[in-house]
Each structure stands twice: as C-alpha cells, then as structure tokens.
Amino acid sequence: MRRVVRQSKFRHVFGQAVKNDQCYDDIRVSRVTWDSSFCAVNPRFVAIIIEASGGGAFLVLPLHKTGRIDKSYPTVCGHTGPVLDIDWCPHNDQVIASGSEDCTVMVWQIPENGLTLSLTEPVVILEGHSKRVGIVAWHPTARNVLLSAGCDNAIIIWNVGTGEALINLDDMHSDMIYNVSWNRNGSLICTASKDKKVRVIDPRKQEIVAEKEKAHEGARPMRAIFLADGNVFTTGFSRMSERQLALWNPKNMQEPIALHEMDTSNGVLLPFYDPDTSIIYLCGKGDSSIRYFEITDESPYVHYLNTFSSKEPQRGMGYMPKRGLDVNKCEIARFFKLHERKCEPIIMTVPRKSDLFQDDLYPDTAGPEAALEAEEWFEGKNADPILISLKHGYIPGKNRDLKVVKKNILDSKPTANKKCDLISVPKKTTDTASVQNEAKLDEILKEIKSIKDTICNQDERISKLEQQMAKIAA
After folding, report:
1. Phi, psi of 469 (to 5 degrees)
2. Which residues cross the membrane (predicted)?
3. Any residues with CB less than 8 A from the CB of 423 and at least 6 apart, and which?
4. Could you read off the pLDDT of 337-359 as tens digits, one per residue?
5. Number of domains in the chain
6. Do both 237 and 100 map to the same domain?
7. pTM recorded for the entire structure
8. pLDDT below 70 — which residues of the chain?
9. For the chain, which has fewer Cβ within 10 Å, the N-terminal or C-terminal residue?
C-alpha cells in the first residue's frame, strides 16, 4: 500500500523564539542597503553589524551577554566606511573577518572573554579591491584562507597568515557578484551574479567548471550555495517576480533537478544549509518567517517541511554552527534574528520523548580543527572537514587560541608599522620551511608551558584541599 505522507524525522521540526530576557536588546542594527545577513555567530560570540557615525562598526557579544546592551559597549570599529559583511573563522572562535565600503577586508582577534575596550587595530588589513567589499567567506577546511568579493566584480583569495592575495579572479564576472559559496572540501566555489548566471569555479585552476545562464529569469538578486553532495541550490525570482528555489547538478546545468515557486514577496531569500540533516532554511530579508525544506534523493528532491512565523520582520539573520547547539534538547538549528533594535535567538527543535543522545539527529559534524594549512591548499591539496562527535556536547578547547596561527600574525597585535610590512612579507619569506619549523617549535613550547602552568595550579589546589581535609579530620 502506498504511503500518503512521506516519512521523515524532520517533519515535526518546530521553531520557538526565546524569552525576552534572553534576547540582546537596544542594538542599532545597520541600515546600510546591502543584502548580507548582518550577523555572524559561533559557539562563543554573536557579532552584529551596527549603525556607526563616521565609519563602520560591528558589535561582538559573548553569547551569555543577553539583555539590554549599553550604548557605550565597546565595538570593533577600524573601518572608515560601513561594514557590509562579517564571517567568523571556522577554525578559531576568536577570529573574525569583515568587508567594508572602504574597499578593505580586515581580520580581527577578539579577546577570549569578549571586548572590554573598542577594537580599532585589526591583526591584518587586506587591500586589493578597488570598490566596496560586500562578501567575506573563510575556507571550510584550510587554515587562514579567506575569500573576498567586491563590487569591482573580482574575487580574491588571501593567505591571511602572510597578508597576501594569492588568487585574483577578476575577469570571470561581468556584473555584480551577489554571493559566493565554498563546497564541502573547499576545492570549488559557486557564485550568483547580477548577469543572472550561476557559475561553478575552480579557483586554483582559475577556470569556470560549469555555468548556467538565466538560472532565475527575474531581475532581483539571486543566491547560490553548494550542498554536501556537490549539487548547487539557488534562490531567485521568476520573470513574474515570484520567488523561486531550484536544485542543480553542476555536471549538467541545462535543466534544474527541481524548481519550485514560492510566493510573490520581494525580499531576497537568504539560504542557510545544514549538511548533517540536509535541511535548508530560507530567511527572506524583510519577511517575518523562516521556511525550511529537506533535500533528498527522491522526487521532488526539495521537500517543504514547515514555516516558523513571527510578527516582526527580520533585518538580518545569524546561523549557529552545529557544535554550538544544545544536543540535550534535540536542538537542530539556532538562528539569531535581527530586528530594528534587537537580536532574538530562535531555536529549531525535533520533538523527542527520550532524554538520551539522539545519534540520528547528530551525525559527526565539522569540528574546529583545520584539515590543511594554507600553503597545502594553494599547492593543490584537498581535504574534507575533520569531524567531531557531539555526543557529550561541544566544549571549546581552553588553549585553542594557541593553535591559531602558527606562522601567522594573528596572535600578535600589529604595531604601527606592521601594516606597511604586510605587503613586503611575501617577498622576504624565502625559506618557508624553516619559518614553518620555527613556528611549529614555538607552538609546541607554548603548549608545554601551558600544560606546566596547569599542573602547577592543580598541585597547589590539591595541597590546599588536603590541608582542608586534614583540618576537618582533626
């Protein structure tokens, strides 16, 4: 007998906004007209682009700092023009990149416990774009590889560790780039552009692997993202201005695998994808809802699950990586919805009766460890993300910041003349092998010192406890 309803463990996923006291209040969210998400989240911090007079700024708040945010709260404010996009480094929860209207990309190191003073000095300034930089995206598996795309229609891939632009794709797009997405192992990127084309590009060979003209025929902005299986998911508009979503196979872009029309709203649909559950969440800018779909191998391939609706329209949206979720509550996604004056977390949950760890909801997920060094990736190596289990929850490593940047400048604050040095760094580096070895040695020594300190502290603690025990026994 044929089943009427498709079976799926995600059929009953439901969204719930947190209580008021768990929101971040009194934040002046940026009003700049740009279709990025304005918010970036990781298991330690939430970063939000805000209104700033005389330049561009964003807030970085520890996740627990809910409630009203004081107007004098320190910001990250080194840009001379509005900030358009921010992205947390997937391999270090204290490193964030920002792109701005001032044509630069800046990389910042946030102190472990958050900001106590405003941060004006980035670790490195990446200069190479001739117009505003609207997109920044870290490589998913290689350490310190950062992509930026600007309104000069160029994509630049940087080695943040040396401050140099190693790949410049400046002749592939004839019009504005709406978004860029890395694939799972970071060997390819896909882009959506104002010329209505979706392109799949091999950045190291600097060639277009596949492209589709008029992926969506409407004139309004499109988005394209890679899925874990290598297919490309796009959102856009039809000629009649209806919002559409589509699924494509890059090996054959003639016809979409699936194409669905949704509604006639005019907000750009921002897609957020979870490779572990194959769920895509669509958040329209200016909408007051989040729609979510499951991607499967069987027709119609893109299955509508449900909609989370609220009263207030969203100005932007942050999406928590899987390792930042509460596995004990069967939480499979957490969004940070930006209103005009606040940021409201929204939790997506699969209803389950059992309190046990649900391993079908939480397969091993991408962890914070980089699979490759920047140099290995630029030389042509690929590697899938290093996976971690969430069975006992994710505990951020105490000394992870020591591993930040072996041969990099990320863990030392720049001095006044450091910026000038950045341009000449690559030329000086004649013997990278010895620099690498020195950096490795340095890192090992730091780690040994850290472990010794910990042992000393524990020794002291043990002797104190023994004294207490002796007193009690006496």
Report:
1. -60, -45
2. none
3. 163
4. 999 999 999 999 999 988 788 98
5. 2
6. yes
7. 0.82
8. 1-5, 397-436
9. N
